[in-house]
């Protein structure tokens, strides 16, 4: 079992230009749709809040695929995965289905580790260029970065398929010597399956592209773009990139069911489970199985953040991120683990904390989360699904609701369609 701290995906470069903090914390929510147990649970002399108990629908419809949490490719806890098919542009035969792709609602676009692709397909994916130079991307996380080229491919997830080839990132296909010395974030490179904990990342959050106007506008791209022009494949420097060439959220390019997703995960015991199987549903209000009913809707900024939320009397930026494997927030009253589980919380008794989530539409809900010692949870080396795993991310200005928030809930993500005169981005549960 690997228990590394997996924090927020793709936040730093997006929010820097708006002077918003990167780090985030986690929240389990009691408001909105979905029923809960009638009483709290007592563990280790403390109590956990009642857990939500919604079950996922069967992943049998054309707009659904199963989500699996388990040991995966490298034994990292709380990694939800699906299978994704990548095809060379214009081809229906030069394709490969890749399993163990992490479902990440905190990022946008598909990223696949180069070693997970066969050579024939990898060589057939056209490399992006900008001004005649090779186009590469440094996608920064809170705990590291991925580095690799931008290429185009047709993407299929279950029965849903993009209408044309779209930009994606190939992780780790460029030599480490080409990583820019500045502008590529901090932390360790996550360019291998082992480092990433998955074969790739499927970013299906609220934005149709992974950087938007920040990277398209030359004035902001000069300091904040995560894209780099690499003449001859080296000497990479920051560059603005038009929206059409940015790594794209595949859902936005489906012919139907393209306005959002629903992540549905089953409830798990408070002490964890060996595995969990949920359902990823494409589209919101487009089929009989994805109606927006019985839930509370929170409109967000362009990247899915609830910037006016409140924790411990402080305004925080909260977001619902299936790509984080725990609740991550700052609370000095909770004991941190030792070096064995660095970054996670290890309280001597079960803890409950509450955060108030606030949408741009002024929708509000008080969310209660449970925290059990990571040392207790990881004591059973056969468990990989946890609903009360939490850790510190180093700032009091953010609150990251990671995968523990999703167990027993149906969580909706409405894509930002304002550029086309459509709906504003939202989350709902």
UniProtKB/TrEMBL annotation:
The keyword Signal applies. Keywords: Signal. Residues 1-30 form the signal peptide. Pfam families: DUF3443. The keyword Signal applies. This is DUF3443 domain-containing protein.
